[in-house]
Write a structure and sequence with these properties.
Layout lengths: L9 E4 L6 E4 L1 E5 L3 H13 L3 E5 L2 H10 L4 E5 L7 H10 L6 E5 L4 H9 L4 E4 L4 H20 L4 E4 L2 E4 L4 E4 L2 E4 L2 H12 L5 E2 H9 L8 H14 L1 H4 L2 E4 L3 E4 L11
Parallel strand pairs: 3-4, 3-5, 5-6, 6-7
Antiparallel strand pairs: 1-2, 8-9, 9-10, 10-11, 12-14, 13-14
Length: 256
Amino acid sequence: MPIDAPCHLIQSSSGEAGEIVAKAKILVVEDDENILNLLSAYLESAGHEVVAHQDGYVGYKAALTDTFDICILDVMLPNKSGIEIAEAMRAQSTEIPILFLTALGAEANVLKGVDAGADDYVIKPFSPRELNVRIQAILRRSQMAMANRNDVLEVGSLRLDVEQPNCDVSGHSIQLTPYEHKILRRLVEQPRRILSRGQLITLLYGNDVAVGPKAIDVHVHNIRAKLGDEIGEMIETVRGFGYRFTPASDAGRRAS
């Protein structure tokens, strides 16, 4: 049975310039005891509820049977890797955000994590404060996606029907193909999250059809052309990875 997220988020003032910070129930799976204890203590001091495990298989069982607002997974774990845990979560259709901790910073390793369904990754060694900032950003995106779960998604002048393959931009109706609609909906529902070409291939064709990444590039090209410059430019190409939807309000923070 799919596990939906988030379900524990509350809003609390951080005490710094009135900033509103999301508090969450967080699963941390890390086999280094020192890192696990340090990270758990830091997150708890920030007001989060932390469930911590060192063993990959125990963490795997927790991720699939309990509900969390975000899961932080080391990549190299005993008995089950972080990649295997993430793949199992996505196979179960859970949308719980995933952040990887990894000492493997090469592009191929990062891409593998993104392809497994990661929302973000942090390379060791890392600052706990930076990690908490990343967590807050993911939680805000998750809250936005939950708020957008209605019959129509609206971003700027774009109104996208979540059920029918059509949308309108500035009041002008645009007909999308079913594949174009699936891609655009997934991108808009998860703003700022990088979706790899492999993930989009699975979304459209499943795992049983051999399709090259070029097919996704063609679909995205057609979507951009139909939406026009204002909305089309919000679909960013992230070189070496895939695509993400970045609302125009974030233009000053864009970076591939």
